[in-house]
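Reopening this ticket.

The earlier resolution said the output was attached, but the attachment link was broken on my side. Pasting everything inline this time so it's all in one place.
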Amino acid sequence: MRIVDIIYFVFLLTLSLDPTGFHSRLKDLLFVVLVIYGVIYCMKRRQYLSGINRVTLASVILIPIWGMFIAFITDNLTDWGYAMSQVRSMLYISIFFFMVTMKLDVLLKAIWVNGIILACVTLLLFFISQLGGVFLEVIYDYCNASGNFMMAYNRNFLGYTINGLYFKAGSLIIFSFIYNLYQYQGRLKTIYSVILFLSLMVAGSRTPMLVQLMILLVYLYDRNIIGKFLTRVSALVMFGGLIMVTYLLATQENEDSNEVKYENYESYIDDMSEKGHLIWGAGVGSEFYAKGRGYKLSYSELSYLDILRMYGIPVGLYLIYLFFAPYFGLWKYQNRSIFLKRFCLGYVLFLILSGTNPLLLGSIGLTALSMFMVIVNKAGDMGEGEEDGLIVDHCLLR
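Inline output:
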């Protein structure tokens, strides 16, 4: 394993634990180092990007600049801070230049170990907070100091109050959980699986809980652990129960999160109904009155509606497609590996989770997009029926 691969792992860990640079600017520094290395590496070996990768990279970098231009000429650019932060965040698609130089096995292991560390930190803080008293107060005050990287809150869950603790990058645990279930065969597999599963279950947020349950349900079905017939019956019952719980959570009355989302949804419709907003958008850095919050916002937790509001329907749908494009690109390779197929499913679940949290247009969302663009390239390089890049040993990292 190369030294730069270790640097990438440190970058990924820093991105997960401190995505907004609340504690340091190490993430940005490592990002610049890795991108420069990747560009030089590719140039020296005369490895050039394919046409589709060039289009994706150029689009993701230029679209927010276009959005700022629209906001400026329509006199809607009222939040320069958010506009510039989105432009900077979208530059993280450039980490693709480095990740494409990595071996697929090393890249996946780095993602796996990073998820385990993130899960352990989450559970440790969660269990300490359950002691109450000064422990709870210190952790909650720490989280509230910057809600951009870590959240702690009380959530009403079908009549039960849950104290939740959740890293904004916690959705990356999805990939680690799937890797651990399908790829890792070491003696600690069960322990790691429990840790990774519980880390999102204690988030206090409904979507991560449902995502973890769905992944586990699919795994039990794939492995046929309790027999084919019982597995199918159990899967049907569990899937039906999952749909019912999802419906109950989405329609639960007197639940602050639901009320805020529904009222904000109405606000998006009102804003996009204004003249021209459906076509070219209000622009990046523009604000709209969010009924759910009671004041003006540049963005909310509804990421896909943010994209449509800021960029308009044509450009907005194109940008959304770019995030889902790697999944479609991997479709023709999925039969080569059940792991690859489920990893693709995990990416879709990640995009769903990111759509209800402000992750998609940040460094976390762009790093995930870059990762799957690389996996598309690596899968395409494998021969028919070849899975060498997806078979791993029992070690963590070499």
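Reporter confirms the inline version is readable. The beta strands are 150-157, 160-167, 288-290, 295-297. The CA atoms of residues 12 and 121 lie 15 Å apart.
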